[in-house]
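Subject — a protein and its fold

Tokens — whole-number codes for backbone shape
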Amino acid sequence: MPESAPLRLLWVKSGPLHPLNTGGRRRTHAMLRELNRQHRVTWLAGLPEGTALDPAEPDDPYAAEKIWIPTRESRKGSPRFAAELAANQLFSRLPYVLSRYRSAAVRDRLIALDRSGAFDLIVCDFLTPAVHFTGWERRTPAVLFQHNIEAQIWQRLAQEKTQPLVRAYFQGQYRRMWRAERDLSAAFDGVITVSPEDHDLALREYGLKNLLGAVPTGVDTDFFQPPAAPRDPAGPIAFLGSMDWMPNVECVQFFAHDILPAIRRRYPDCRFRIIGRNPTPAVRRLAVDLPGIEITGTVDDVRPHLDAASLLVVPLRSGGGTRIKIFEAMAQGVPVVSTTIGAEGLPVTDGRDILIADQPDTFADAVIRLLDQPDFAATLARQAREKLVASHSWSRVAATFIDLCAPVIRRS
């Protein structure tokens, strides 16, 4: 195949893309739509039994062909989930978040597609599907696209736990994830991260020889646009993210209990709006136990909520990868206050396009500064959006991804 011909890409993931309600899904979706315009993408993923595809999924042009393999995925909190968790703890070397997605059917179809000779490159999207790439010899080059360094997330979660048994469990899962991530990553022809920081961490932690570089986070600056009217400084303080993800749950609890009271000493009526899918009981309790906290649950479109907000807070203390929600808020003209971990991996500058604070008192001071100084908040938001428009379109991100993959691609 000539070098100028479109690539034949097999993209492997653990589940559906729609609804586009997580940062990882939105990143993958935006990149695939761009890639499928220039190349031919085949999508391979599991579909848990009893799960219906979202109506938007079949006709969405993110792939020329889509292959769904029925899988079993235990519902969290169910007896089968508890049994699997116990069995994993006793008999597996893998962390449960990887072992629960193993599927012989997905693995068999992946092997068959590899041996068909129909592809120039296989992309494993996230670490989860990587469990299907072991124990057989590939004929097609394969790249692992790491949206997070997963072991780092578990390490940070363990450090936040105070109950000894809970902390011991998380530390054990961290150690399992560290070994699994190291070994699975090394089995690919190349590894691409989403930030230079993650690239350096993978090199330092795992000594990987197959790192290809980092692809930046992008944002659709046509879809996300600032509102015509000036932002209302009396609007709610917003948090945006999947509310069934542990780092986000702990993040909003931290803000509500440790940061918000200091803000309310100056602005007694300020509200905190938590925007995101599947809020856990612990998140919902915040709205019951504390005044002025709003839980939206799943929303069809985050833009009206961002337009109503005075600012966005990202007080994360664990997690990994890059926060696409920060770029989306910035593109929508929302000023942002984040911890260092929250903004990790993003090319942002404290005081120019974002405010960074790590302690409860300094974080509260940064929020109060934006509420006290609406002109400064507007300038911060404008400068952030200008940077995104200039450097972070999805077409540029997708092209960078293909450039990074080029050293391992063998065209037939």
About this structure: Residues 8-218+393-408 form a domain with the Rossmann fold fold (CATH 3.40.50.2000). The chain has a mean pLDDT of 92. The radius of gyration is 22 Å.
